[in-house]
Amino acid sequence: MKILVCISSVPDTTSKINFTDENRKFDSNGIQFIINPNDEYGLTKAIILKEKFGASVTLINVGTAETEPTLRKAFALGADDIIRVNAVASDGFFVASQIAKIAKEGNYDLIITGKESIDYNGGMVGGMVAALLDYPFINKCINLEVDGNSVSAEREIDGGKEKISTQLPIVIAGQKGLVQDKDLRIPNMRNLMAARTKQIRILESENSDNKTETVSFEKLPAKQPVKMISPDNLDELINLLHNEAKVL
Fold first, then answer.
1. pTM of this prediction?
2. Domains, the chain, ranges and CATH?
3. What is the C-alpha separation between 106 and 222, in angstroms, rounded?
4. What angle do helix axes 68-75 and 189-197 make, rounded to 10 degrees?
5. Chain segment 97-132, per-residue pLDDT in tens
6. How far apart are CA 150 and CA 135, in angstroms?
């Protein structure tokens, strides 16, 4: 079994976010980047399948050289190879086009993305990859079992869960629940040392149109200071909720 795992390099959730160029570009100065958490669940599932079936696990990222430290961290968790498409990940369709081309040429059986990245929250790449390849797609996947070419999976839906059966090859978009938190891996020293010198296969991007364009970014408004109201002063509480917060 050949597994292709898509890895996004995203800002740590504790990072302070700023924008430049009149709020048209993300300011990466001083930002610590990490493996996208949804991708990490998918990567861990791929490694478990590798250990169970002897599968090969290849990482893929569409990005510039700045993403390589994150890719090496992901490799140290137990992957076999790394591919980086040397391009700015400008929009979802562009990224999906690059991934789909490599997935088709490499004849991968299972392509795993995260349901979304935690920076842009677009949630579109997995579905687009599946459409471009004409593969079945399981979104918000929280369980996956493989038996030969047969696949049984489970995904979250509004108000419940849905069980699915299909055949390889497929594309899934994983999230929390695809593996248990206790199964997430911590790289050992040997893998960390190997990751430092691992050769990354760098490919130039294929021509592909962008379907979207970022016009500008806008920060959320600053939180207002908290007003403390005496529990005995219900009239003032109602007044503030009605006239200031406007929730009544």
1. 0.88
2. 2-220 (3.40.50.620)
3. 48
4. 140
5. 999 999 999 999 999 999 999 998 899 999 999 999
6. 14
